Amino acid sequence: MDPQTTHRMDKVINCFKKRPDAVSRLICFPWAGGGSIHYARWGNVLNSSIEVFAVKLPGREARAKEPFFQDMQQIVDEVTTALLPVLREKPFALFGHSFGAFTSFAVADALKTLHNLEPVHIFLSGASAPYSEIRIKAPKRSDLSDEDFLKWMTSIGGTPPELLSNPDVLKLFLPALKADLHIVENYRCKKPSDPFLSCPVTCFDGKDDVPHDLQAWKSITSGDFTVRMLDGSHFYLKEPGNEKILLDYVTKHLETSGMDYL
C-alpha cells in the first residue's frame, strides 16, 4: 500500500492483530458514542482466518481533537475511501450494533451502488431498519437536555452507573453520543424496492431491549435472513456469554462463506 493509503487506513481503522493471511475480514461499526476498542479486541479472540477492522470515528479516542461528523454521508465517504483499496483483496463482512447497524447498512449500500462490491455477510444488531415505521416515529433524543438525556441513558442500561455519575467522564462521553444520535435521527432512506444485496443477513438483538423491527431488514437482501435473540437488554453483546455465542456464530459463517468465495 502506498503511504497515503496506509495513513488513511490507520486513521479510520483500528486493527489490533494484523493478519495478512486471513481468509476474510470483519469490519465493525461502533454504537452511538462508542469507540473502536471493544471490537478491535475481537481480533485477539477470533481465530487466524479472520482479520478484524474496527472503525474509528472522529471526536473520540486517537481522533478526539477532530470535529464530529454531522451526517451519515460523511461517515460513508470516509469509511469507503479508506477501505476501498483493500476490499477487493478478500471477502469481507460487516458488523454493526445500534447506530453501527445503520452505518453498516449505509456503507454496504454505497459499496454496492457505487463500486459493485458486496459483503459475504452482514451482521446487524440492536436496531430497527432505518426505513421502518418504528424507527421513523422514534422520539428524538439528541435534543434532550443533559439531565433528561442521562435519565434516558440510565433507563436503557449498558452504561456503567459510575460513568453516568462522574461529571468529568460525562463531559468526554456525552458529546460523542449526542453527535452520533444526531446523525441517526436525521438519517433518512427509502425502503429498497428490490433487495440490493444477495448475501446472508443476520440480525441479533437482546430479548429485553425495546422491540425493534428486525424483519424490516429482510428487504435489503435476496439471500438468507436470520434473527437470533439473546438474553439481555440493549447492550446484551457486552455480556461474555453472549459475546461468545455471537463470535462463534460469526466465525462459523465467515469460514463457510470463505469457501464459497474461493
Descriptive report:
This protein is of the alpha/beta class and 262 residues long. 42% of the residues lie in helices and 14% in strands. It contains ten helices and seven strands. A seven-stranded mixed β-sheet has the order 1-3-2-4-5-6-7, with helices on both faces. β4, α5 and β5 form a beta-alpha-beta unit. The mean pLDDT is 92.
Secondary structure elements and pairings:
Blueprint: H1 3-12, E1 13-14, E2 24-29, H2 37-40, H3 42-45, E3 50-55, H4 72-87, E4 92-97, H5 99-115, E5 121-125, H6 133-136, H7 146-156, H8 161-164, H9 167-185, E6 201-206, E7 225-230, H10 240-261
Parallel strand pairs: 2-3, 2-4, 4-5, 5-6, 6-7
Antiparallel strand pairs: 1-3
Helix pairs in contact: 1-4, 4-5
Summary of the model, kept short:
The protein has helices at residues 3-12, 37-40, 42-45, 72-87, 99-115, 133-136, 146-156, 161-164, 167-185, 240-261, and strands at residues 13-14, 24-29, 50-55, 92-97, 121-125, 201-206, 225-230. The protein has 262 residues and is an alpha/beta fold.
Which features characterize this protein?
single chain
Q: What is the structural class?
A: alpha/beta
Low-confidence stretches: none
Helix content: 40-55%
Beta fraction: 5-15%
Give me the strand/helix succession. Answer: HEEHHEHEHEHHHHEEH
Tally of DSSP helical segments? 10
- The backbone outline, from C-alpha atoms, is globular
- State the major sheet: 7 strands, mixed
What oligomeric arrangement do these chains adopt? single chain
Q: Report Rg.
A: 18 Å
Instruction: State the distance separating the first and last CA atoms.
Output: 24 Å
Record field, number of beta strands: 7
Strand order of the largest sheet: 1-3-2-4-5-6-7
Averaged pLDDT, please? 92
